[in-house]
Amino acid sequence: xxxxxxxxxxxxxxxxxxxxxxxxxxxxxxxxxxxxxxxxxxxxxxxxxxxxxxxxxxxxxxxxxxxxxxxxxxxxxxxxxxxxxxxxxxxxxxxxxxxxxxxxxxxxxxxxxxxxxxxxxxxxxxxxxxxxxxxxxxxxxxxxxxxxxxxxxxxxxxxxxxxxxxxxxxxxxxxxxxxxxxxxxxxxxxxxxxxxxxxxxxxxxxxxxxxxxxxxxxxxxxxxxxxxxxxxxxxxxxxxxxxxxxxxxxxxxx
Length: 254
What we know:
The chain has helices spanning about 5-20, 25-40, 55-60, 85-90, 95-105, 120-135, 145-150, 200-220, 235-245; strands at about 45-50, 70, 110-115, 135-140, 170-175, 185, 195. By secondary structure, the protein is of the alpha/beta class. It starts with a helix and ends in a 7-residue tail after the last helix.
């Protein structure tokens, strides 16, 4: 049997290939929505609505090779940094997301990217619904396979029992192809439990596929995409100054 890390590598590469093979059209649609919003000087908001999906917002924000006009929603309520079990409690609270989107100013013509691998909790569902009410285009990055597996009466579910991927408020769904249970490697002696999580990597891959597609779409529209260059590269600070000057005050965490 291959070593555990070799099994893990194989499983993860297989999931990334599934995204590339099966999600191309949805990635392009999402990229086009972002390009159209940025062409009108709107913003892209990204909200990782609990647990490790929170990192989806960090992945899109102030990112080398990524888009500048990304207003990341760094909500301490659902961040593990402020308490892991607290995060689990908060992400299940109906109505919580409304105040968060109000505070960040999600508005008409913006894009809201909701990143949640599981796609069932209160903050996730409410974020998509509230984003649409506020006039934003909503993109979901999630695992329909996982969502459909969870029973309707599970305590993590939104009171509506709905899944993120099937909400009418969502304009585009990118399936991250995360399998049920998240972990992907089976080892003898664990009693059937799996190890080696997949959600962070499939989320990040789906996010960056969408971002590069948006940049490509902007170029096709004859626009100059605002892209960050690493500040650790020679000339990086100088290249980024114009972006910082333009968006300071509009991007809350810049």
